[in-house]
Every structure is written in structure tokens, then in C-alpha cells.
Amino acid sequence: MFGEHGFFILACYGVSALVLGALALWIVLDGRAVRRRLDELEARGVRRRSASRENG
Fold first, then answer.
1. In this structure, are residues 9 and 2 in contact, taking their beta carbons and an 8 Å threshold?
2. What is the overall mean pLDDT for the chain?
3. DSSP state of 56
4. In this structure, are residues 12 and 2 in contact, taking their beta carbons and an 8 Å threshold?
5. What is the pTM of this model?
6. Dihedral over Cα of 24, 30, 35, 36: its sign
7. Which domain holds residue 31?
8. CA–CA separation, 35 vs 54, rounded Å?
9. CA–CA dist 16, 39 (Å, integer)
10. Residue 6: which H helix or E strand, with range?
């Protein structure tokens, strides 16, 4: 199907898929961690500077 370079081609696709999957997982986990830190800060009373503009 891919000729004499089939293994190399499939290996490259496999590595690329693993890297993209790892990056997607990292983004999701990091987003959750950032959201958790922001919620903790807001619970302590720390507000964003833009909060006054957002609320009116």
C-alpha cells in the first residue's frame, strides 16, 4: 500500500497522533488547573481589574 517506506510513513502518522493527543490532554488539564486557581483567588476576594468594566 505505501511501498517500501510503509513502516516509516505509518510510524510518522502514529507519532504525530500521539503528540497531538498529548498536547490536547495537556491543554485540557492545564485549563482545569487555571480555572481552579482562579476560583481559589476569587474565593479569597481577589478580583480581576477588568471586573468593574464587565459588570457595567
1. yes
2. 90
3. -
4. no
5. 0.68
6. positive
7. 3-54
8. 18
9. 35
10. helix 6-43
